[in-house]
Amino acid sequence: MNSFGEDELLIVAASILIIGLILKKNRSAHKNIRSCWVNPYLRQRNTKGRFAQDFNDMREWNNEFTQNFHMEQDQFEELFQRVRHRLEPKRCTRPDGISAKQRLAYTLDGIIVSY
Question: Which stretch of DSSP H or E encloses residue 9?
């Protein structure tokens, strides 16, 4: 059986300490990097997405808005103000996430389509 001397034990301990420091540094360096790639067109969905374009277009044509949502724009806004607090995320919000107004519109669209 091999017995290590003090010099060998000191070298092994120093090596373990150095490896631990290197691993810790690598983990903290990669902490701020996103873990997945996001397609560039998804980053622009709040300005160029279908909801952003269609919803604003429908607001200009009151008849289209009423046909799509089965209510007037002021009724939609009143409903939105009443349920807004339930549609907004409780935790941290992503700047590119789905807005509360989009959630309401999608919900109404789902109810209307399945009706």
Answer: helix 6-29
55: containing domain: 40-113
Distance (Å, rounded) from C-alpha 10 to C-alpha 16? 10
Tens of pLDDT, residue by residue over 20-55, are: 888 777 665 555 555 666 777 777 777 777 777 778
How many domains are there within the chain?
A: 2
15 and 54 in a single domain? The answer is no
At a CB cut-off of 8 Å and minimum separation 6, what does 57 contact? 64
- Same domain (yes/no): 29, 61: no
**pLDDT tens, position by position, 53-76:** 778 788 888 888 888 888 888 999
